[in-house]
Amino acid sequence: xxxxxxxxxxGRFFSGSLFMRKTFYSLLDLLLLRTWHVKKALKKxxxxxxxxxxxxxxxxxxxxxxxxxxxxxxxxxxxxxxIDSEHIKDCASFFEKAGLSERTSFRTGDLTLLSEKxxxxxxxxxxxxxxxxxxxxxxxxxxxxxxADGTLIISTPSDKGGSDVHNENDDSFIGEHVRDGYSINDxxxxxxxxxxxxxxxxYTYGVPxxxxxxxxxxxxIKMLNFSSLFFILIPFWYLIFFPxxxxxxxxxxxxxxxxxxxxxxxxxx
Length: 269
Fold this sequence. Notes:
By secondary structure, this protein is α/β, with parallel strands linked by helices. The chain has one domain: Rossmann fold (3-Layer(aba) Sandwich), CATH 3.40.50.150. Helices cover about 45% and strands about 20% of the residues.
């Protein structure tokens, strides 16, 4: 199953006008459960920052989290980095058209080569670390780049089926993942050894979230991989199943999970 080509195709489809891009961000906010958990973590972290705040969106992708953070607080400035130059070009163009270029900037870069020191108040990294083999180096770079008492927020798959891998014979849902997911002990240990303190890790995508993910992401993407003609049927699919996914997402956000296919991590320098 190929996820990345579908993702890029959708990004291109919605990358035209301001209205289309904003619609795309709104759809991602509604459909992606990780966005619900990240929004909750950002609201909690925002209480630590009063006044001018410099944020790094580490692996910004389509820019939906840069968009959210720029609109959360007008005193926040966002610097975004991604290894995909196409994403960076599209984001820079959209944010300039949206009138946010004074508080946002985008650049192509490799997080393993991040060299800033004591620069950022907050670093957000969503669905990035599972793509990077040299994760410890990136964690060390994040620690150096944060100011004293700065905050790191990470969302990444867990080792409890986070890449839709449930046994050694399964293939990852996302072919470009270099690891299927982190255990709580693994990511806690790596962050602690990189200098972070107050590391808090919680499971996301528990039972309700996993069901929602299948309805809102896995099955539609499987259909689109089978034939692009299913684009015609996708709106009807969501018309039927989105209300169920919405309620399941709300349940997942409200519950504390003993296990889950995702991890939400916060840590302080």
